Amino acid sequence: MNAGTPDGSNAHTNDRTHDVANRGLSNLDLDAPATPYLDSNELIINMGPQHPATHGVLRVILKLDGEKVLGTECVIGYLHRGVEKIGENRTYTMFNPYVDRMDYVAAVSNGLGYCEAVEKLMNVEAPARAKYIRVILTELNRVASHQLWLGTHALDIGAMTPLFYTFRDREEILKIFEKYCGARLTTHAFRIGGCQYETYAGFEKEVKNFLTYVAPKIDEYEELLTTNRIWLERTKNVGVISSADCVALGVTGPVLRASGVKWDLRKAQPYAAYSEFDFDIPVGTNGDTYDRYLVRVAEMRQSLRIIEQAVNGIPEGPIMARVPKVIKPPVGEIYHSIEAPKGELGYFIVSDGTTQPYRLRVRPPSFVNLQALNRMVRGLLVADVIAVIGTIDIVLGEVDR
Amino acid sequence: MAEEIKSPFPPPPPEGEKSPVAEDRAPIASTAPAKPAPPARPEGPVPVPWTSPLVEKYRSQYGSGLVALTYLGQNYLTVDRSLVPDILRLLRDEEQFDYCVDITAVHYPKREKQFDVLWNLYSYPRNERLRVKTQIADGASIPSSVPIWPTANWLEREVYDMFGIQFDGHPDLKRILLPDGWKGHPLRKDYGILQQDQEWVQINLGIESGQ
Predict the structure, then answer these.
(1) Average pLDDT over residues A9-37
(2) Which of A323, A329, B33, B68 could form a disulfide with A193 if both were Cys (CB 3.0 to 4.6 A apart)?
(3) 3-state secondary structure (DSSP) of residue B84
(4) Could you tell me which residues come within 8 angstroms of residue A211 by beta carbon, excluding any fewer than 6 positions away?
C-alpha cells in the first residue's frame, strides 16, 4: 500500500497521488483539494493491483478517515483481454475454450452457460445423459470453487489452516476433471450439443468415493471456523448488505442469498437437468460476511446431494445431439443464464446466420457483484476491506474479461 | 417503426467485416455423430408478436412507439428512444422488474441509427425476463438509468467504454475496463481485432507495440 505523506507535506509528488487527484473521485463526494492532505484527517491510499489480498489485479482506492473507510473506488481492467471482441471473430465452436478463461476457477460453469446458450439459439437440446454429466461436473466445480474461495478467504483474514484443507480436497475434484477431459482448470468439458467425452471407466465409482470422502471434510472446515472466536470477530456484522440493496445493485449468487433472498436460477428457471433433483437453497439472514460463509458451506453440501442423485440416476444413451459440423445458428438473438458459483452468469448472443456470433455479450456475476463493494465497506476498517473483497468472491478474469 | 416489425434483425454485415476465417472449414472439435447426416437446416424461427396485459397497457399509452415481440420464448420490447426513461421507470415501478440484469449494445454500422441499446430485465416477484431495446444514432446520447437501478452505473460505463455511447445524467461516466486515456471503442464493428491505441501503448508501456 502506498500512503500519502504523513506530515502533510505539499511537496509530495508521488505519481499515484496525482493519479488519484486527477481521477476526480466524484462518486465518493470528494472534491480533491488543490493541496491534498493538508489540514485534513482524510487520507487516500491505494490498495493493489499487486496486493495479494485483492485476489488478482484489483486496485482499490480507499478514502480513509484514520483507519475508517469513507469510500472506495475500484479500478479494474488490468486483465481485460477483449473476450467479447474475440467472440465476434471466432466461430461458435472455436470460442468455446475461451469462456473457460473468464472465471477460471469455475471453468465448467462458464462452458455450460455458453454451450446451452448456443444450443438454445440453434433450437437443439442436449441428450439426457449429457445433461447429467454436465450437472455432475458443474456441481463438482461449484464445490471446488467454493473450496478455493474458503481457503483464500480464510487466509486473508488470518486463518492459514483452512487453505491446506480445502486445497487438499479440491485436488480430488481436479483429478476427476483431469481423468475426464485431460485438463484440470480450464477444462473445456462440454461441446455445443452435449459432451465430447463419454465418462471414463470407474467415473461413477470415483465420484461416489469423492462424495463419501469430502462430506466429513466439510464438517472439518466448519469445526475450524464456524465457532472460532477470531473468525466470528472478523466476519460477524462485517460488510452487511441488505436484500433491497442487493436487488438494486444487481448482486446475485451467495451474496444475495446470504441477505435472505431465496433465489437460485437452478430453481427459478431450471436449466440442464436441475429440475429433476431435490435440493435446498441455503439462505442467510444478516447479509454479513459470516452468513455468506455459512451459505457457501451449506451450498457445498447441497451440491453433494445433487451429485449423488445425478450419479445414481445417470441414464444411458447418446451424449451428443445431432449438431451439424459447421455451426450456423439462424438469424436471431438469445439470452441464457445459469447459476454460476458466483451468481448469475449470462450470455447474450446475436446471430446473423453466419458461423461467427455477430455480438457476444457476457454478463459476468463477479463484475456486477464487485460494484457492491463500495456499499459494503463504508464505515469499516481497512482490515475489513480485505474480508469484504474476499467474501464477494470475485475472480478478476471474469471481472475484466 | 413499421419496418421493424417485418425485420427486427438487420441484414447480415457485408463481406469483409469479419476476420478471414474460412466459413466452411470444419471447426476443430468434430461434434456431429458419425453415421446419419443431419437434416437440412430449416430456416430459423421468426419473432412473433407478443401479447400480454403488460403490452396492451403500454401500447394504449404509447401507441406505435412500442413494438412487442417474442423470439424463442424470450420477450422483448422495441421502443422509441424518447420513451426510454419513462418505460424503464414504469417497468420497475408498476411491473416489478426490479432487477436490471444487464445493459449492453450492438453495433450495426450500415444502419442509419447505428446502435441498439438493450436493457435486460428480470422481475423477482414474477420470475420473468424482458429485454428492452432501442435504436440510437452514432453520437446520440441516451438517458442514464442509474436513478432507476443503481447497478446500471458500471454497466453503462462499460457500454460507454466499449461503444462510445453517452449516458445523460450518469454520475461518473468514464472508462472502466480500458485505461482512461485510451482512444477508440473496441466493440464497434469498425475497430479491428488487432487494432490498438499504439500511442497509448508507446507512452505508457514504453514498448513499440503491444502486438
Answers:
(1) 45
(2) A323
(3) helix
(4) A304, A307, A308, A311
pTM of full prediction above 0.90: no
Cell of A287: 447479509
A208 touches chain B (CB under 8 A): no
Question: Measured between CB atoms, which of A88, A250, A323 is closest to B101?
Answer: A250
C-alpha cell at A194: 452435449
Contacts of B127 in chain A (CB under 8 A): 268-269
Q: Quick one: which of A19, A37, A35 has its CA closest to A75?
A: A19
- Whether the CB-CB separation of A285 and A104 falls below 8 Å is answered with no
Put simply, the answer to whether A27 touches B172 (Cβ < 8 Å) is yes
By the 8 A CB rule, do A57 and A391 touch? no
State the CATH class of domain A83-400: mainly alpha
What pLDDT does residue A297 have? 93
| A401 contact B CB<8A | yes
Q: Quick check: A1 pLDDT over 70?
A: no
Q: Residue A127's Cα: distance from chain center in Å?
A: 28
pLDDT at A13 over 50: no
Element (H, E) at A172: helix A161-181
Domain limits, chain A: 7-75, 83-400
Backbone angles phi, psi at A47, to 5 degrees: -110, 125
Quick one: pLDDT at residue B43? 63
Q: Which residues contact A263 (CB under 8 A, 6 or more apart)?
A: A252, A256, A257, A281, B124
CA-nearest residue of chain B to A397? Answer: B177
- Give the pLDDT band (50/70/90) at residue B15: very low
**CB nearest A348 (choices: B32, B98, B102):** B102
Q: What is the ipTM of this complex?
A: 0.80
DSSP secondary structure letter of residue B146 = T
Which residue in the set A23, A85, A361 is minimally distant from B186, CB to CB? Answer: A85
d(CA A79, CA A396): 7
A150 Cα to chain B: minimum distance (Å): 27
First-to-last alpha carbon distance for chain A, in angstroms, is 25
Looking at residue A357, what is its pLDDT?
92
Beta partners for residue B141, in sequence order: B166
Q: Are A352 and B50 in contact (CB under 8 A)?
A: no
What is chain B's Cα-based Rg? Answer: 20
